[in-house]
Automatic annotation (TrEMBL):
Spans through the membrane: 476-503
Listed Pfam families: UDPGT
Gene3D superfamilies: Glycogen Phosphorylase B
GO MF term set: glucuronosyltransferase activity
Organism: Sitophilus oryzae (Rice weevil)
Subcellular location: Membrane
UniProt record similarity statement: Belongs to the UDP-glycosyltransferase family.
Identification of the protein by name: UDP-glucuronosyltransferase
Gene behind the chain: LOC115888277
Domain of life: Eukaryota
Signal peptide: 1-20
PANTHER family, A to Z: EG:EG0003.4 PROTEIN-RELATED
Coiled coil: none
Length: 526
């Protein structure tokens, strides 16, 4: 009876202490790799008993979770396909020194139109019309636009990213950002930066802030006023009210940086391995490839069909002469002169493929989710980075000795073939991938558990203003200490001027005295 009583007391205690909150989660970017961490978070919140409303292009549609309400934005994938190619082409092309600035200009125009479409979407209107309050609003923190839903529903604001965060996003929590030590994640810079790279990152850090505050924020503010509410504060003030910013990054894989208490590094999220069917043909291909398989995929945004014809021909010529089979994510039904040892597929269950023992190498663009999945599978890589954080991710893998990097413009058949043969025939690359996996996972708390804890922390305290950095409220000239430098410079200049004029006065006085004495001496001698 005592044991039954203890169990009863424990159940009552748990029921009393379970806090069921109403949470809005907005993650609108139409990219499966970006949505994956967000899906894990809102699903875990719902499984803990919270009432979760998710505005997303990738709804989970879990019928057993009655407290999970998803608003379907899946038609945004078509919207992205129909985007003006002149604007969007810079997203899938690795920027050079001068095009980094042009890319930022065009991409911000794309996202402005995209967020305006979100605000006008029928599912967004349905969300607004069916809800009057939330205990927290969680927003994918690329732009602060969707953060306007926090003051709209009078709820604390939480930012979350599926990778790192750009400069402007880090500024909203007052995070110190050194342009050399921690350059913007959108710049394709390796860790060992040249003088040209360092000049680029400094100029870019200045440009992106001026562009953000003078053009982007007024544009986004006009959008929320037009489509959400004219009574909302200025978007530049809304973004400063963010309670915490959750970054899906791991210090082992990413550049080290100083973080404020409101900037939470999740350390990566371990996803449950969903055993998706490989498909009869794909499974047979992998099982029968006794010599090994090279898996080639450029992710969901950079499609294989985007590659120039000459580049595709280069890959096919190399693959044709390999002693291995090749699994190629290819978005068309056919390929000209397809090698016999190549298996084409528009969609590939990547985690299960990487876990297959016959897969020996992954040729990848270096996106964060692809990189993490490769490391977890202990497979080496050849990275061909295109945009955003891909260069840094691939460069990290190279630094840890689990792969090689090839710039697309430097790609040759000889280099590609030699890298493939070297990596597959040298077991140290796979061993180093395993060591890196162990380093990344050796932390006190999984990223998903940490994310849930901080979200509930903000809800418990109705915000986290006590974690707010004073840097958030400082004008830029005070943050850069320009007034102090001006004051010190003025004092220094005043001292220099005093010394200069004092010295000049002494010299002139001495000169007059010398001439006077000299004249007196001459008169006496006469």
């Amino acid at each position: 009876m005592k044991a039954v009583f203890k169990v009863f007391v424990l159940l009552v205690y748990c029921c009393i202490n379970v806090q069921s909150s109403k949470i809005l989660f907005i993650a609108c970017m139409p990219a499966p790799s970006h949505q994956k961490p967000f899906q894990a978070i809102w699903r875990a919140l719902a499984e803990k008993g919270h009432e979760v409303h998710a505005l997303t292009p990738n709804p989970l549609n879990i019928s057993t979770l009655n407290n999970l309400h998803e608003y379907d934005l899946s038609d945004f994938y078509n919207l992205l396909k129909n985007t003006n190619q002149e604007d969007f082409k810079y997203y899938t092309k690795k920027p050079e020194f001068h095009t980094a600035f042009i890319k930022d200009y065009y991409i911000t125009k794309v996202w402005t139109r995209f967020y305006a479409a979100v605000l006008q979407h029928n599912e967004t209107r349905r969300l607004i019309n069916s809800n009057t309050n939330f205990d927290a609003v969680i927003v994918e923190w690329l732009y602060p636009t969707m953060g306007a839903f926090a003051p709209f529903f009078k709820a604390p604001l939480i930012g979350v990213t599926s990778l790192g965060a750009p400069l402007s996003s880090m500024d909203t929590v007052g995070n110190p950002w050194h342009p050399i030590i921690s350059p913007d994640m959108n710049l394709p810079l390796p860790r060992g930066m040249s003088l040209k790279d360092r000049i680029l990152t400094v100029l870019y850090s200045i440009y992106v802030r001026i562009h953000y505050h003078l053009l982007i924020l007024p544009r986004e503010d006009a959008s929320i006023k037009a489509f959400l509410s004219k009574e909302l504060p200025y978007i530049g003030n809304i973004e400063k009210e963010i309670s915490v910013l959750l970054l899906n990054r791991n210090s082992i894989l990413h550049r080290l940086m100083s973080l404020t208490p409101a900037t939470i590094e999740l350390g990566g999220i371990k996803f449950p391995k969903e055993r998706q069917e490989l498909g009869t043909e794909l499974k047979k291909f992998l099982d029968d490839s006794k010599n090994g398989v090279v898996y080639f995929s450029l992710g969901s945004t950079v499609k294989g069909t985007f590659l120039p014809r000459k580049t595709v021909e280069l890959f096919t010529s190399v693959f044709r002469n390999l002693p291995y089979n090749v699994l190629w994510k290819w978005e068309n039904n056919t390929m000209d002169q397809k090698p016999d040892n190549v298996f084409l597929s528009k969609w590939i269950p990547q985690i299960n493929v990487l876990d297959h023992p016959n897969v020996k190498l992954f040729i990848t663009q270096g996106g964060l989710q692809s990189t993490e999945e490769t490391i977890a599978a202990h497979k080496p890589i050849i990275g061909i980075p295109f945009h955003s954080d891909q260069t840094t991710n691939v460069d990290t893998c190279v630094q840890y000795g689990m792969g090689k990097m090839i710039e697309l413009e430097d790609l040759t058949a000889e280099k590609l073939r030699s890298y493939i043969l070297e990596i597959i025939n040298n077991p140290s690359y796979a061993e180093n991938a395993k060591k890196l996996d162990e380093l990344m996972k050796d932390q006190p708390q999984d990223g998903l558990e940490k994310a849930i804890w901080w979200i509930e922390y903000v809800i418990r305290h109705k915000g986290a203003k006590h974690l707010r950095s004073t840097a958030v409220d400082l004008p830029w000239w005070k943050y850069l200490m320009l007034d102090i430098f001006a004051f010190i410079s003025a004092i220094f200049l005043a001292i220099v001027l005093v010394l200069y004029y004092s010295f000049k006065f002494i010299v002139q006085l001495g000169s007059k005295l010398f001439r006077k004495n000299d004249n007196s001496t001459k008169k006496k001698s006469e």
